[in-house]
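Let us work through a complete example step by step.
Step 1: write down the sequence.
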Amino acid sequence: METTDKKGFDYRFDCKPDYGFITVQIPSGKKLKVEAAAMATMDTNIEMKTKLKGGFSRFLSGESLFINEYTAKNGSGQIQIAPACPGDVDHVYLENQTIYLQNTAFVAATEGVNVESKWQGFSKGFFSGESFFLIRCSGEGDLWFNSYGGILEIDVEDGYVVDTGHIVAFTEGLEYSISRVGGYKSLFFSGEGLVCRFTGKGKVWIQTRKIQPFIGWVNPFRPKKSKD
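Step 2: predict the structure and record it as tokens.
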């Protein structure tokens, strides 16, 4: 899938939606911020520097502490990026906008996008079963993110309900709260768990799979340790 955005860097997606792979052309003298350990290949004229992002808050969120910056020297250079999670990849060009990502979804961004952790509070983080932190991406430029499973983009006009484990990203301006989908019996026996109730107008990106049910499905097939 070839994509050229006049407002941003040229890039290409491969292997969507199962094992998304991103190829980005970095113009001469420009920088690309990439999640640590995601670089797969790059041209020899690209230089890498590691930057500390978010300090202790990113450590608590379970993310890597570092984002690598890649700069093309003496001409443009190509970099290929392989996200850690086996799923889809997507792109948004921010125009002085803000998008919140779940704590493992960030892949890469251009220099004009500010990437930082945002504390979502004990109630929302603890009761959702997800991270206490979101990743806040704001400013102007390219933003790439990934998911577990495929990615669906949904326009929210007034309200929408999403299982917390399926949320990938959402736009600023949407308010959200965590609640049960039914009573306590539903919480423990229906397999549905907790949901995020969005209100307002904006966009939500969801993933078609979530990790915890997959872990539960795989667990019976794990080798058992023999008792001596």
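Step 3: interpret the result. The helical segments are 56-60, 121-128, 184-189, 211-218.
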